[in-house]
Amino acid sequence: MEPKVGVVTGSKSDLKVMEKCCEVLNQYGIKNELKVLSAHRTPDEATAFAVNARESGIDLIVAGAGMAAHLAGVVASRTTLPVIGVPLKSGDLGGMDALLSTVQMPPGIPVATVAVDGAKNAAHLAAQILSLKYPELEAKIMEQRNDMKKNVLS
């Protein structure tokens, strides 16, 4: 069995940022699927995705949303899979509203949260979490870190 990540975002306008998450997941060889689902405009579809994620072979979910940014929380409330939230920059507040909405979850429904527009780091964190179940990912993570080290030292 191979690791698989469900990547969801609240709007088509957010695809450019969330595609960066998929690019990094692909570099690790982690299967992924990207969907546009809104906590507010498509709540039934977002709920169905979360409820059925494990059954469809998904190991972890990355959810990106801007403004009120409820997508990660809604998804987390409907699954026991790990959820990583990516607050997205939008509107007049530059993503601070999304950051606070994503990080301020009630006890018992956690959402791991990365920086505003931090889709790449969400993928790296996903790989680290998945390496607990798929130990072969650890070598890929170490290779990626060694490459970063070489780039800094060159």
CATH architecture descriptor text = 3-Layer(aba) Sandwich
**Strands across the major sheet, in which order?**
2-1-3-4-5
Helix content: 40-55%
Q: pLDDT average, as an integer?
A: 96
Distance between the termini: 38 Å
> What is the CA-based Rg, rounded?
15 Å
Order of helices and strands: EHEHEHEHEHH
Q: What's the number of structural domains?
A: 1
Described by strand count, sense and barrel closure, the largest sheet is:
5 strands, parallel
The computed structural class is alpha/beta
- In the CATH hierarchy, what is the class? Alpha Beta
Query: How is the CATH topology named?
Result: Rossmann fold
Rough outline: globular
Taking pLDDT < 50 over at least 5 consecutive residues as the criterion, the unreliable ranges are none
Number of contiguous helices? 6
> Can you count the beta strands?
5
Strand content: 15-25%
